[in-house]
Structures are given as structure tokens and as C-alpha cells.
Amino acid sequence: MIASDLKRAAATAGELSALTGLDVTHDSGLRETYAGAWQGLTHGEIIERFGEQYAAWKRGEPVRRGGGELETEVADRAAPVVLAHADKLPDNGTLVVVSHGGTIRTTIGRLLGLESYHWEGLGGLSNCCWSVLGEGARGWRLTEHNAGTLPEPVLGDDD
């Protein structure tokens, strides 16, 4: 199990560790997107103070929200962390990644090979929900997203 070193994700990973007995490795590369001057503001305050910048971001333009990170920069730092730990897994091993909604979405988009403009199409990730990726014939495959129950295998009509 790997986790962001920020307080909420680290606490969530700690709870999972207590339940599973798995050790947690904390990595700053899994931190949430740094949003500069937007940090700590409500949605309304962001629109009031940074309306044009917010509108450009919602249109899918590459925006340094509040002077912070681009979504591609978040993926640049987080995806290699996930890949490095995934490469160390035994066959059929499972890697649990505890991070933050924006970081998870951009990392999934990067791992799936989606253009950054389309990452928003994955939708948000609710607190304490998860996504499941696996290896497909042509790379990573998203099998479940924003889930709140344990995944069930997909069966064909003939099963």
C-alpha cells in the first residue's frame, strides 16, 4: 500500500493498514494538486476572485489554478510512483494507492493513455471510494471507478 503523505490520505491509509495488516509507504508524489491562491477557498470564492481562470479551466484549457500545478504536472509526478510500485508486485499482486481525487483522476487518465483534455470525463472520485485498474492486452484497463462496494468480476453471457 502506498499513500500520499498529506493528513487525510495518510489517516485513511492508516485505517486500511490496521484492518489489513499491510504496511504503508508514504510518498509526496501522491499529494493532491497544488492550487496556489485557490487553496482553502470555497467554490464561490474561487469563482468570485478567479472567474475567468476558473472558466478557462472548466473549458479544458491548461490552467495553473491559482498559480499552482497543471493537471499534467500532477500526473507527471504521481503516475511514475504508481508504476514503480506496480512493477514490484508479484504476479496477480494488488497495489492499493491512497491519494486524493484530482491526483487519482489525472493518474488514471495518464495510465490509460487518455489525452489530458479527456481526464475530466472520468469524473470525480468521492471520499472513501475507489477505482480498480488492471492489466489489459494493450495496457492498463479501468474496470471500476468511484466505487463504494467490492468489485465483482464481469461475466459474459455464456458464463
TrEMBL record:
InterPro entries to which the protein is assigned, alphabetical: His_Pase_superF_clade-1 (IPR013078), His_PPase_superfam (IPR029033), PGM_Phosphatase (IPR050275)
Domain of life: Bacteria
Signal peptide (UniProt feature, chain positions): none
Gene3D superfamilies linked: Phosphoglycerate mutase-like
One of the Pfam families matching this protein, by short name: His_Phos_1
Protein name: Phosphoglycerate mutase
